[in-house]
Amino acid sequence: MASSFFTKTPSLSAIFSIYTSLSAFTILFRTLLHQIIPVQIRDFIISKFTDYFSAYFNSNFTFIIEEQCDYVTNQTFRAAQVYLPTLLSRISTGSLLVSSSNLKNPMAKPKFGIPVKAKIIDEFQGIRLEWTLFSAKDNTSYMSKQKRYFHLTCKKEFRDKIMSDYFAYIAKSSVKILTQRDNLNIHTYIPEHKTWEPAIFQHHTTFETLAMEPELKNTLIRDLDAFSNGKDFFKTVGRAWKRGYLLYGPPGTGKSSLVAAIANHMNYSIYDLQLQSVKDDAMLRQILTLTENRSILLIEDLDCSSGADARKEDKEDDENQTKKKKNNPKVPLPQNVTLSGLLNFVDGLWSSCVEERIIIFTTNHKEKLDPALLRPGRMDVHILMDYCTPFVFKKLTALYLGIEEHDMFEPIEKMLLAVKATPAEITEQLMVSKNPDVTLKGLIEFLESKKIG
Question: Whose CA is closest to 131, among 67, 174, 88?
């Protein structure tokens, strides 16, 4: 039986001959395949076979969460970006991103973030999840930039659970984190990179320290609180969840301080937009759709947005004020930005792109603005930031000198009713000395010189 088996076994030369024939056939087949089938079709077939076998043998499922979605920030990416830093103790790779942008306090505790390709493990209702941040060059636009995205990996059987419950959970968690955040940011737009760059915002002005008439201050606080709690109301009446404020008045009357007080009260970051850097309406839409929920869009000095034109008009005001008032010229918007394009983000269709947003315009010359900006419904609240009043003076004196009464208060208050002095001018005089007698005497001399001038 054994001898029969060995007699049927092919010889080494036969095996080598068969192998040579198969190799030749394989080479011939591959050559014909490459000559007959185009490269695109071959790549497509190979990719389909690869996807099929990887899906069949792989038990994991991966969600890809890109930073940008339909020309706006992907809110799921944003939620993950806020939520994941709370899980840094579960990072499985041996690295952390460390940053500190607090210029006022170099000794401040740094912030820790997620490096690219670092893996973070989360657990949700007993399901193990793995997050990874990736970054790659995006060459789809005319200007290449970094494209960031998260991979969220779980077992296939939990895919539906993650889709229905987990994403809603991190969205809710991120809102809670943002509401309780310690640091706010002020963003400036960088046209070259098409991104908003943040910096730590640490303006210490609050409504408690803001020198403003109490009736106006209380009205504004009630309005802000009603807006913050008005999600259901805005949805019911079919309006975008946004609020517009126009701050107007002479320079130095505290418009910037009021913006800071609003940001600190609402715990909102600020997007400071310089209209001079905007080329056209299309760019304006792109810029504003990149802002985030729960934020302030600030457009300062709207009457000076055209730069040289505005300065020229101011000069003409001085030379021929009566004629200017009669003609009442309007300051144009810069370059190719149209009024309709701007209004679209105030109360048009594009105003609904971001929720819970406050839009603030500031101007030194309300009379120069186009009437279309001032119509009812455009800016919900118009706030006059006026010259210093006796109440504002006493508030500033309490803050800077630590006193609430003084013999010189009465003559100073009478002078303030007759002389136009801005809170900024009064503050500058109050900072001359810590001695109330010296400071208040100098303030009286300053007001007298303004009265004479």
Answer: 88
Q: Quick check: 123 and 158 in contact, CB under 8 A?
A: no
The end-to-end CA distance of the chain, in Å, is 129
How does 109-118 read in b/e, with b if 16+ C-beta sit within 10 Å? eeeeebeeeb
**Interior/surface letters 25-61, b for 16+ CB within 10 angstroms, e for the rest:** eeeeeeeeeeeeeeeeeeeeeeeeeeeeeeeeeeeeb
Question: Which tens digits make up the pLDDT trace of 51-109?
Answer: 665 555 668 999 999 988 766 678 899 899 889 988 988 887 778 888 776 666 677 77
- How far CA 256 is from CA of 163, 259, 298, in Å, comes to 43, 5, 10
Q: Is 85 exposed, middle or buried (0-12, 13-18, 19+ CB in 10 A)?
A: middle
Pairing mode of beta strands 357-363, 242-248: parallel
> What pTM did the predictor assign?
0.69
pLDDT tens-digit readout, 379-425:
889 999 999 999 999 999 999 999 999 999 999 999 999 999 999 99
Q: Tell me the two tokens of residue 99.
A: 């940053």
The type of residue at 242 is: K
